Amino acid sequence: MEIIEEKRGELSTFKLQGRLDSNTSQVFEKRIFDAMADGTKNVVIDFKNLDYISSAGLRVILKATKALKRENGKILLCAMQDYVKEVFEIAGFDSFLPIVPTLDDALKSM
Amino acid sequence: MTLQTCVSFELKNSLGELSTLCEKLERIGEVLGIPRRLLFEINLALDELFTNIISYGFADTSEHIIRVRISAENDLLTVVLEDDGIPFNPVERLSPELPCTLEECKVGGLGIHLVKNLMDEVVYSRCGNKNVLTLKKTIEKN
Fold first, then answer.
1. Which residue in B91, B75, B92 sits closest to B134, CA to CA?
2. For a designed S-S bond to B133, which of B35, B55, B76, B81 qualifies (C-beta 3.0 to 4.6 A apart)?
3. Pairing mode of beta strands A2-8, B121-127
4. pLDDT for B70-115, tens place per residue?
5. Which residues of B touch A67 (CB under 8 A)?
6. Quick one: B4-138 is in which CATH superfamily?
7. A105 touches B: beta carbon within 8 Å
8. Is the ipTM here above 0.90?
């Protein structure tokens, strides 16, 4: 998996490419928590080029969401392929995680 | 007579084999003519079950082989997953209550919940010293 990270002040945008599974989720978890240790309070995750997610990937996003909320921060997910979105829906994560159609939409609401 | 095509492969009990699983499924998807979305769902179901098996299934640290067999007959796809780990029936595990809020959300059991929802049928049996899981799914071509 490739992770592109862009940081503007307290906002970090992570663009994911490839597969977020048990093999790659720890790397992503470290990147998010490193960013938070470095002052990030708000996070946008761009799923446009993410082809695959498993429950290991969902766990990282849940953990990050809880940690950001404790810091009164915000998280937004965007540009998911429909079968990736289906995984969030089956898990019930779409009821508390905001998912918007495009990266622009996400950045505008931050 | 209907045509039945069957493909099988083996995985070792190591997380690195998740990429082997993905590569094998890409090939099998072409051979059996499985649509992309279904291939994604099969990959996810096998990923969750395989990750469970190698995380909790073996009491020792030796190498084990997990066998996967995929067959297609008419519009029915059957996937059989076989391991020689400790007896474990994931079908028995109740799905977690689906969370409505972030605070309620727990991560345990999420993988099995995904498998049950993605597949039409999940059946467990213990055969000798093996766990055998049979997954069934209708192939919807569009």
1. B91
2. B81
3. unpaired
4. 999 989 999 999 999 999 998 887 666 666 688 877 767 889 999 9
5. none
6. Histidine kinase-like ATPase, C-terminal domain (3.30.565.10)
7. no
8. yes
